[in-house]
Fold this sequence. Notes:
- There is one protein chain.
- The chain is of the alpha/beta class and about 625 residues long.
- It folds into three domains: about 250 residues, no CATH class; about 160 residues, Rossmann fold (3-Layer(aba) Sandwich), CATH 3.40.50; about 150 residues, Reverse transcriptase/Diguanylate cyclase domain (Alpha-Beta Plaits, 2-Layer Sandwich).
- About 45% of the residues lie in helices and about 20% in strands.
- It has 20 helices and 23 strands.
- β14 and β15 form a beta hairpin.
Amino acid sequence: MKKKLAVFTSGWCTEILSQFLTGMMGMLNAEEADIFLFLCYPTPSDTEATKNGEMNIFNLPDLHDFDGTVIFGSGIDYQDRTDDIIARSRAAGIPVVMQGGRREGVCYVGSDNYKATQDMCAHLISEHGVKKIVFFAGTPDSYDSELRLKALRDYLKENDLEDHLTDVYYTNWEMAEASRLVDEICASGRGLPDAFICANDGLAQQTCVTLDSNGYDVPGDILVTGYDYTKGARVFYPSISSVDQCFVEMGEAAIKLWKEQLVSGGYVEGEVIPCKFIPGESCGCHEHGSSDELRRRVGREAFSGRAANTYFTRKLDVIDSTILSCHTYDDFKVRLNALLRENHTFEGDSFHVILEPNLGLSIYDSDIKLNTDRYSKHMDVLYSYENGVGYAENEFCTKDLIPGYTGEGTNHLYAFVPLHESDLAFGYLVFRDCIDKVENRFLHVYSNRMSVVIDKFRHTLALDLINKRLIDLMRRDPLTNVNNRIAFDEKEKLLQSQINSGENVHFAVAMFDVNSLKLINDTYGHESGDEYLIRACRLICNVFKHSPVYRMGGDEFVALLAGEDYDNRESLIKLFNESLSPYTESVPLPPDYISVAIGVSAFDPETDLTIADVNKRADEAMYKDKGLKKDIL
């Protein structure tokens, strides 16, 4: 069986992550191994519960089943999660390679941000006369961001230019925060710096956009630089002056270092990949620009990109409408499975939807809770196809991660993304060979939309269930547990509508009045009276067992005879009367005493225009029967 390599990161740094994964997969050509990418999308502004829901995917794999771990540190700013992954890897006895961040005793692969940042500073100061710099950092926990800031400060200190760094702001890697800071600086009246150095290309692009909206030209009025040398930053106008960190080469180095540790059986020295500052249009260095050809190529690709986005959006809309139109959890599973089997062009022939076994149960019982920090030992398989072959079972052992996975054949990359709401785990999705979907964030959009619509479905179904229970309570007599007057009124309206429409309906109304209730209440108490009513109601239900029975209030009941009860009404009336006790007004009464007056009238389509016509005859017959039974006394 092939080796298995676990990779952990978040998916926000899309282009550099896809480059890193491309390097890893290319380096595995000579090695039989699959990459299992555990991917999530937490942000610093998320609630703690939402962050936990996203990063719960890191808890999914049992690392004892793997041959190594790679942590893409450029995407993880959560040190406790990184430490936990390292600790679990060590407990499993497998080698660890960490990119973009250092831990004692952990093999490190990274790029020389420090040297490239100092080259950037030298270029801005010597070539462009920059004297005032604002640094937009990521987060205080980011190794890369802090190293770049340190390199900047060290360079300025070594050259007695420390006052050139006027401000440092932490953006938490959020574009909106960068925009807010630029607006604030522009409105402050303190004047702009000569240059913004941004901790990645995304922040640099957002800075350019916000400066433009405030009436400032880049690079005419101010310079801007970034990091990562992404395609998006290169085709942006102005193209971003940036640091190429050579993430493909870093991915290749990560695999090389992993193999070396497998051979040596222990820790090996890491590797630092040289990287370089590449001036661009955003610092005024047009002669260095190589963006025009790339812009033309991206322009040609825009059409197919729009078509793919349109198809993808429609697919998500169909998934939404399919799930939200389901009336039960079982219906949801059947219909979504059918939809994916019918059309899985986007997902491919190897795609898996795995759900928590308590997901459906939690809808119907609020006391059943979903996991928040792990996944269940066994999971439900909603949809699972590997190489176009479906998984036959409805559940599988979570430890296996992928239903039907054999570890045979060519090398593959499997991406695992969580399904959740807040910290409640719904399950996870598995995509295969999807580096392009990592880069364009389709995986995030897909998993997020499916999580949202599943949560909407859960709440809608739960509310519908509550409403049905409330309606049932409203229609139910609490003493006898048969239908009440509200339910009878609704049924009466339905029957009347059928009569109005000229439908061929056959029914009869049986009215009942329980005798001697006042005598029992006055003699034995109301509790005995209630027991008497229950006993009488049970007899009605047992005789007219195919018909709904209603308690109209007090000692009055109605049955709407249909089907067999309608056809056999005469014999059932006789049976009912034979089951009664003789009417009496003297006490003591026998413990099984039941005396009930009954009147039955069948609907006659020739003469009856309304239900009231039938009710009136049944009521008259019931009072006649009551008089007859009393006269017998």
